[in-house]
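Human: I would love a firmer grasp of how sequence relates to backbone shape in proteins. Take your time, and here it is.
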Amino acid sequence: MTHPFGHRRRHHRRQRRRGAAEPGAGLWGAGMGRFFGPGEVRLALLSLIEEEPRHGYELMKALEEKSQGMYRASAGTVYPTLQQLEDEGLVASEAQEGKRVYRLTEAGSAELESETRRVDRIWKRAQQWGDWGFAMDPDSAEVFRPVARVAKAAFRAVARGGDDPDRIERVREILDDTLEQLKAVERR
């Protein structure tokens, strides 16, 4: 019997195999995943414009700063989104010193107010991703595979033990010991 949503499941699995993670999946998702989910770029831009009127390049830089360098917006993402926001009446623009500066309209403020929780989640995710910025250093990347192998072995050891609480505790002890050893190396 075919599941009524089987096609969605297959598509979801196919996307995961290709390396597309859900927004916010972080470093442990398939690759870094997508930073923004559907409709989130526009909300992020609106919230940045709410802080102060800005031109496109300033918005690109602000997105990068908010994510501590983990997300770099392209002109091909920012400028069409700004045009869409202007078409929707959520922002207005004017030329200043040869640049188009965007400011929030009343409708844009209302949109942000109705989406406060989503905007908060976007910037929380940006902070969390930014917290992992040190892991993107080339030297740090050298340890990624061994870390992944240790994590896989830990999960496997627990999974193969059934509901054995002693096994789970032993794995936890090994990982805690390893953590303490790594902290000692960090302090040197």
In short: The chain has nine helices and three strands. The two ends are 60 Å apart (CA to CA).
